[in-house]
Amino acid sequence: MRRTLLSLMGTWMLIASAQQVTVTSSTTLLRGMEPAFYPSLNHAGDKLLYSDADAHGLKMLNIATQEVTAISEMNGAGYDAKWGSDGKVYYVTSEVNPSNRLVYRTGRRYDLASQSNEVVLEAQHGAVHLATGTQGMAMKGDKHSYATSPKRGVSVYTTGSQLVVTSDGKENRYTPVESYAGYLWSSVSPQGDKIAFFAAGRGIVVTDLSGNVLAELGNYEMPCWYNNDYIVAQNASDDGYQYTSSQILLLKADGTFRHELTPKSSMTMQPSCGGGKIVYTTIDGNLTMITVDINP
Questions:
Q1: Does the reported pTM lie above 0.90?
Q2: Is 247 helix (H, G, I), strand (E, B) or coil?
Q3: C-alpha dihedral over 44, 234, 89, 140, to 10 degrees?
Q4: At a CB cut-off of 8 Å and minimum separation 6, what does 140 contact?
Q5: Residue 162 exposed, middle or buried by CB count within 10 Å (0-12, 13-18, 19+)
Q6: Does residue 129 carry a pLDDT above 60?
């Protein structure tokens, strides 16, 4: 058994060492115009959503022209804004009701063609979760919900320590791993056959659509799918008060490969992927876009 285990470890090391990753380009975005956080690339990788450090307001950068469009100035708009498969922007804003001092959240949609916003989910007290699907978008509230269509292919969101997966209109809830502090940052792979999410205290977990664990990639955060086989993530550490290091990693979704795209001292964080590009920011809000070549 020991000989077999050593043989398997040796084989894995040969496979991992054979892989090479090269950063083929690096571009500074916004040219220092303003600090930018919570970047979100669209599917084509030619437009980018971003916000300020407090997620107040939401803006869009046209990467080719460097033109910036203000989408919203409302509180919370930039925290979890997502691109729908229809090319529109979906986001949630929050306001405190002056009569009862409770927070109410509203689901909104921005149309790039008409440059207009509309409310798609009326204000309600409680959490509103955005579930990006391979063929549509949904906003799940405690009282009311919204969906672009009844069937959205495969979509996912998290609530507490539950992974909520909808496939062809049928919703299922799974708890693939124990995490008393809950799950975050769930997403579906480009081919719609795998899910990645962060479990507090465990790190990044990859499952199939039935919640079966395929791999645990390490205690990293904010996973995003680079393609169907690779995930980009943030590896950060802190002293309980502030970040002491943060870097961007490229991880193979089966857990067999890890590559540092930036050093720990770079304080780079919040990665987003789209169109074969990777965008991340720094602790000071400086955006960078890179492309990579993966030689398996």
A1: yes
A2: strand
A3: 130
A4: 128, 129, 130, 131, 157, 159, 164
A5: middle
A6: yes
